[in-house]
Specification:
17 strands; single chain; four-stranded parallel β-sheet
Amino acid sequence: MQWGDEGKGKVIDLLSERASHIARSQGGNNAGHTIVAKGQEYKFHLIPSGILYPHTQCYIGGGTVIDPASFLQEVEGLAKRSVSFRGRLHLSLYAHVVFPYHKKLDLLSEESKGLFAVGTTGRGIGPCYADKANRWGIRVADLVAPNFAERLKVTLAAKNREITLLYGCEPLAYEPMCEEYQGYAKALLEFIAPVEDLLFEASQREDRILFEGAQGALLDTTFGTYPYVTSSCTLAGGMATGMGIGPSRINRVIGVTKAYTTRVGNGPFPTELTQAQLQHFPGHAEARELGTTTGRKRRMGWFDACLVRHALKLNGADSLAITKLDILDGIDEIFICSGYRKMKHFPVTQEELRLAEPIYESHPGWKASTRSAFVYDDLPSKARAYLRRIEELIGVPISIVSTGPEREKTLWLDDFFGSIRP
């Protein structure tokens, strides 16, 4: 619901327990989902988080972009940890492929922007999506086709002209790249499947399907805090376009947001904490506020109800999962931004957002551990009051409260799929 890194990996993992199919619709290995299960920590970038449950079928949709080396490294990691995936992990032929020239151009473009750099991960995701829109892209279907080598030669020649003439850098070699990616094509064959047909058939059977988002609502390429955004549709509507499934097949949307706000990378951040205020929060490592993908420290701020209301409208979310409530346990005074002074609507431009003046409400801290709560009523009364006020400000109910990274540190306020937990 904000700029990503909200703890969505844990929420997806929890909901996957009662789902049969888990589908990832957009983004690439610039995303990061962290899950703690049975005392072990797992970090996913491309593979759907539901892979940890042996009963699930997991899908990577046509709206994603695939770095084969990264994908196969994740698969190898699963094998080393004895997580089964054979016959359960399916890759769409429509997904586009990330090549070394995408990564090169990503870094060169970011460097050329100077003060206007957006803080990209440098993994080639944006240039890959740009090639998709510009009809230069190479899809998984093209990677495994007989004429791949010829297609790559033509494409790389065009990319090398850009690298040499625009940026003055050395061109990339064709032969080793072609050989490397032909090897990837063979390795990917066991995962390639008619994802769109499989999901449609599952929906016809009324199987339980969970569509998994990546990044954050305000990183959406159209409606996010442009240009400090990612390169795909990160909204709930992107599930339909990214998976090739009709929007009528989606019957519930759950937004995930922290009990405060974080952001990685550049761009305005109205409720960002000052250095003095940060002293009252746990350190970044203790607060688990280091990026799963980048390792960068996340910028931290107070809960921004204005921002979340905006994201809720864009996504049509029915309820919220609130994560990391426990990080606020030791704070004396907690603030909520209820709106921006003299602004009726969420700002569209960066200049307006930089001028946004938060209107803050002060709430007393509960100064007690929330991690020992097993049901909602176990929470300290001031913590419950804080959550109720968030519900009032955003206009939708809270359905899940997370008080730690472990699966068991979860309070269920709703009965998803009809029978998740008491």
